[in-house]
Amino acid sequence: MMPKTISECAYGIRHVEFTNREGKPPWSLRQFAVYHKYIPEAGRQCSTWVLVGASQRTESCLSQYLHEAGDLNMAHPFELHVVFLDVAIASWRPYLAYLLEESAQVVRRFNQAT
Fold it and tell me: Where are the domains of the chain?
């Protein structure tokens, strides 16, 4: 009998989130932590997950994944990591576009003042 190979990882994800709160900057820097331990045992795989500080958007994407995955035993044990990274990456492009527009406004004001 071959010994079990246990996979374990933990990491933090920083991302930006559009909050659009009145009187405050419309974007906030957020972070959450992921811990995953996977024990592959023939017919009895076991995944342990701990998410700390996950946003509502992350929870929504997780729920959608769980709904669409059907039998989780047939899914790859590390697919959820891709879901979490996708949530984080998705907001960076709009945030960078926002920063570009903010910078352009500062440059226009500066050019008008000089």
Answer: 7-113
